[in-house]
Amino acid sequence: MEVVFVHHGHGEHMVGMPDSYQIADPELTERGKKEAVRLRHVWPLTDRDAVIASPTRRALQTARLWCEGSHAARFIHPAIGPRQFPSRYDFKTMPCDANLELPSLTEQFDDFLLPADVPAFLWIQGINTAPALLFETWADQFIAWCRKLDKHRVFLVSHEGTIASYLHYLQKGEGRGGRPICPDPSGGARLSV
């Protein structure tokens, strides 16, 4: 299985920083929507692929626009939600990085599946401020869950800090049983596990 980390498209919270970090539930900008549509040409999806999105509107909008017209499996998972990097113990989740609540996810993104074995607290708290040991436990469980999907490629639509956290953790463990991670020229990072 090949795992490809993909950053969500340009969001409203990225315009007028740092004040814009106070925007709750930011959407994609027009630029972000174009970036998401462009992914269809960079990485065309098939039924052998899965796209897993963070439970934030901007990541889900990116995934939905990218998946449009494809037969790729679609999921939402809190283990790739927003995460600060590097970890700080005094950090508080910014409004722009709060996960959408489960009722909103199931109502507004009903074309995405939710994994059944994720505890409710992870949907609410997310991984943003989780201590490193807890994050690593969830990361291992998440990668194992991805393997069970039995897909050729798994694309993770996530956030800068989350991607950096996963890459740092996986590189420490030499890919956690896979080949080394390498940057992708189209803006992602790839790992074969």
Automatic annotation (TrEMBL):
GO terms for molecular function: phosphatase activity. GO terms for cellular component: cytoplasm. SUPFAM superfamilies: Phosphoglycerate mutase-like. It comes from the Bacteria. InterPro entries: His_Pase_superF_clade-1, His_PPase_superfam, PGM_Phosphatase. This is Histidine phosphatase family protein.
